[in-house]
Predict the structure.
Amino acid sequence: MRIVLLGAPGSGKGTQAKLMVERLGLLHISTGVLLRNAAKRGTELGLKAKSIIDRGELVPDDIMSDMVEERLGREDVADGFILDGYPRNLAQAKSLDTMLERLGKPANQAIQIDVDLEQLIERIARRAKEQGRADDSGEVVRNRMRVYHEQTAPVIDYYANRGLLTHVLGDGRVEEVLERILSVLNVNHAPA
Ligand code: AP5
């Protein structure tokens, strides 16, 4: 399975992807994690990305497509993957299609996790207190939401028009959301 996981900041993409890895044995590729790791390592790309992330803006498309293409070119993606955080605008969606076609591994499912704005803000505020993630504070969160609505939301229609999209309600317990996703994927619900 090659799955594109979509949703606003705080919708649970990372949380669900981790659980899907356990249940489905797929590889989780999170561009947010790749960027934060590069920033921690202090690479040139990482440091450039950090200043952009800390403002809640998108890292330029050429940097992102190089990063994702490199990751998708490795052998461990052979058994399938969950892409979390990419694509984030229409240019990235088109670029991803080209990459996957070239690799002979087109996406077969896009899942949009829907959560209302009030809950998103609550979850991010809680994480800010618990984990102190730099881009989880006031004005930056508002900017991330604005960027999501302006640039990322059109990607939902992109996948809908290609017949690949299913919406999943992202509220309720984490396990309930997972069951909804597994049901979309037609995966046995019994715990592994
Ligand atoms: P990224 O790391 O991708 O952040 P994001 O999309 O803003 O997503 P979040 O990590 O905030 O949320 P999530 O949906 O993964 O939810 P989570 O499971 O963590 O990107 C960060 C930045 O990197 C971007 O702003 C951008 O600058 C840059 N970037 C990344 N990709 C890029 C790209 N392709 N192009 C350009 N720039 C890019 O859950 C959130 C919280 O809620 C957690 O605390 C979790 O425990 C909790 N939670 C989850 N599910 C539930 C539930 N059901 N009930 C209660 N709490 C829950």
About this structure: The helical segments are 13-24, 31-41, 44-53, 61-72, 90-103, 117-131, 138-161, 174-184. The chain has a mean pLDDT of 95. The chain has one domain: 2-178. Residues 138-161 form the longest helix (24 residues).
